[in-house]
Amino acid sequence: MMSSGGFDLLYREGMSLIEEVAAYLDGDGRAESAGLDRDASFLYATESMRLTTRLMQLASWLLLHRAVSEGEISFEQARAEKAKVKFSALPSERGGPGWDDLPERMRGYIQKGDRLFARVVKFDRIERGEEELPPANPENGVSAQLDRLKQAFGRS
Question: pTM (2 decimals)?
Fold first, then answer.
């Protein structure tokens, strides 16, 4: 992922989401949450703290990987630092009292944050050898072309 440009995309996506959410929570989110009923207001406060925590964990992970890719620190140094930051678990379900009353943008940021967080956690597990890379998608034209080139040049 690092060499394929996938990390740069993930990094930009993650940092962009972090900036968007911070601006939202500090601006429009305050205004949108002001009129919520008690249940929704409590849920908004809880979810904004959870989202902020997850995004800060993501930022730490992304910045450590960025430092490794730019040669600022070694992979071993990054691994030692990452051991200090534990990813919080994503809720298995969303909903409950007040969920439907949350501002639409807040629910959207929560969903985006959950998807990005799940991708980073999966990549982290693959990197640590806890999971294997998913098999190449034969439907993917690029993957199929690379497989053909490998066969043509006798490499597996």
Answer: 0.77
